[in-house]
Amino acid sequence: MSMKHPIIAVTGSSGAGTTTVKHTFEAIFHRENVNAAIVEGDSFHRFTRAEMKVLIEDAEREGKRGISHFGPEANLLPELESLFRAYGEAATGRRRFYIHNEAEAMRWNLPMGTFTEWEDLPVGTDCLFYEGLHGALVTEDVDVARHVNLLIGVVPTINLEWIQKLHRDTKLRGYTAEAVQDTILRRMHDYVHYIVPQFAGTHINFQRVPVVDTSNPFIARDVPTQDESMVVIRFKDPRGVDFPYLLRMIHDAFMSRANTIVIPGGKLDLAMQLILTPLIWKLMERRRQWV
Question: Which of 23, 39, 174, 193 has the maximum number of C-beta atoms within 10 A of its C-beta?
């Protein structure tokens, strides 16, 4: 990893809430005057939405499990590692954007589910910020995590993750509940082998745990709100973390282990601001010493 050109990565599966964390980071970057190059994990998918659909249907007609965005077959993972390496060495690299919705389709004048053209990263950025599925991935072929200075995991309990995905994909993307369930089942092998292992290597994990009944996520009418949740925050290395300060600043927070603090869900943004802002200060200070 590079001290001169630091990389921050937020990793989590589809529907986990990484986009919310991205917005918190963007607010910190704006407030602290940090010029970050933003990279979206979805932009490193290998196929367009239409191409993926065809590949999955062809596989299922042959009685096989279709590929998923969680696994290596559907992603440009060597290219993602190359981007991180290039940025760490010289703050260079190329990115593109994935068209998620109608607003982005209108902005880019491209169909939903496609990609923009590759472009060079902006010149003169202070750090690279990645948000997506594979920011902490380590396999036999790639090691994305070794290039990252600060790794954040976003990990809701699995039933909550499924509820969030069901509601997002049915309400915002027009899928049927049955289609979303099929996607969840098809992705399970890749989820276990490529998503879950990443959270053992992250520096901080934020795991939202609902305190309402989510025993059958496929019939839940609403996504549990932040106020109906607790958030478990686990630090890989608790040395240097001022837990007494966090406990004073976050009402009703408590320690469950020596490296773990539990907070009310509604205090998540505050907790992230309190925890992440000093870490970004430290990265920027180290960067200034190298520039």
Answer: 39
Q: Under 8 Å CB-to-CB from 71, ≥6 apart: which residues?
A: 189, 190, 193, 194
Q: What pLDDT does 14 receive?
A: 65
- Please write the tens of the pLDDT for every residue from 82-128: 999 999 999 999 999 999 889 999 999 999 999 999 999 999 999 99
Q: Report residues of the chain scoring pLDDT below 50.
A: none
Tokens coding 41: 């994990």
The alpha carbon dihedral of 129, 42, 147, 194 has a sign of: positive
Phi/psi for 221 (5° steps) reads -80, -25
CA neighbours closer than 13 Å in the CB half-sphere of residue 221: 0
Report CA Rg, the chain: 19
List all residues 6 or more positions away from 217 whose beta carbon is below 8 Å from its beta carbon: 159, 160, 162, 163, 166
Whole-prediction pTM: 0.91
